[in-house]
């Protein structure tokens, strides 16, 4: 009976995966990537390699093709399809027995005791050159029972473990991992055409429809296959297909959602919640910001989602969730509420949010609202009772690209008491509501607001980590921030009425005040933690030598390597910097580099935290600010910027021989000119 179950699983997987592999889109690049990891030419070492990726991305298909390419080189080889199902149906002991019988081509024997299978694997294969593929592994015990250590196999052996759980590979010490990503839009369309039309050219009238259908899969091969199975282009008219495609664009096919749900179902409850928050609120957001909001600064919840191949982290540190996975998460939230908006954990559909706020029908089930205000049907005023029953709301995101808000605020309005995130673009009032409770706030974003003061009463900002009031042109002053001892990022860019910044907390890491052209005073705290400060286009601060000296000499240095950046309006190089060529030595402990940049109108330079970098190995600075036109600036006179980059590090082992400053090619001609550079070395 057990043998029949295993045989059926293997036959089913084999039938699903066996296709004309040479024609599969992207297979060549996968083989090239895996070949470099396998190093088949190396006969002396054993390699255990993981293949990871989200459900349905094609891991098994890739491994199947790889197996057919290389298995004939090995006297002992096997492909164990769907280890997870075998283990669940027949148990770990039989899995070990089945593996040994498959790779040695012997009849399975009943094992006398637990662990006997793994012992036999180790004893019988340690002198044999084997090639084994273990598909859909989901437990540590499965790896430990079949391939716990390289010493279990003879020289030249290769073992491939397929899993969607990257964390599982890390736990088992599998260091070489090949990640499988979704197809590009171009490759997805090619694969879709290839399956539906068997390599022939599709009718020209269907070209746009084909593109739209392929986009529904968002690069996921299994979704492309599912959609292609629904498409018999010879039985429907173009109008009928238009109607069907439009329906799927509004709501994905249920089978597509079901492909991905197994990954979600295996999460622990707290990780499921983090997944739903990302799917409904934070897809594309910075991982640290999301971790602060969900985990009080720990990235453990997001890391679990990464390990389960449900999200990726971009090189810029942003969370990327495939749109199909996002749709699955949102559908899960809707299903949990019995499709009743007032009971939905998170709301994001504009008309539903509009109705809930207008009718004051929200309940304590609601924890977050994400409202694209430009899609609201009408203007709505938030009243005192609008959030009355929404005791559990922690996240409010009212976002728009417009300068005006479709949400207005009555003078007596009250916001939820438990907010961790308040993001309200084009905030319509002069101050926050007088009864606003801010003690739980982690992030406050009120961009392009009508604020004159943040609040007329004292705010409890002890948990606040990020404050963004950029482009609030009427904002005159900020509250006392000295008690906000967790505040790390302050953004006041474009606050043209702001005249001073004082009472800044020691915890502050980043200050962006670009374009605050009324700003006269910036008081940095002693022993500050600021690593990035942009005061460009703050003309009243011109030649503030005290500010420069304080920034460079009074900061904390409790890291192995510290990179500090500042940009301020300046016409002369500060005396702090040497007027000589830098002297490099093996005892170098760091440096401060000053670069005087002039920018002619009507352009401005803007320096974000991604506009510069320091390469320790090459001992070079790369500077790449944003150059943008300013419609309010018509004069041709050049505006001067002093850029300072300070690196403090124990780099004496590098023994640098030169110092390199790399600038964008567009700096070689107007409107930007490098007027002077200086470097001060620390020995």
TrEMBL record:
Keyword field contains Repeat: yes
Gene Ontology process terms (BP): defense response
Keyword Repeat: yes
Superkingdom per UniProt: Eukaryota
Species the sequence originates in: Raphanus sativus (Radish)
GO function terms (MF aspect): ADP binding
All residue ranges annotated as the NB-ARC domain in the record: 36-200
Keyword terms of this UniProt record: Leucine-rich repeat, Repeat
PANTHER family named in the record: ADP-RIBOSYL CYCLASE_CYCLIC ADP-RIBOSE HYDROLASE-RELATED, LEUCINE-RICH REPEAT-CONTAINING PROTEIN
Protein name per its UniProtKB record: Disease resistance protein RPP5 isoform X2
Pfam families tied to this protein: NB-ARC (PF00931), WHD_ROQ1 (PF23282)
Gene that encodes it: LOC108841871
Disease resistance protein Roq1-like winged-helix domain: residues covered: 271-337
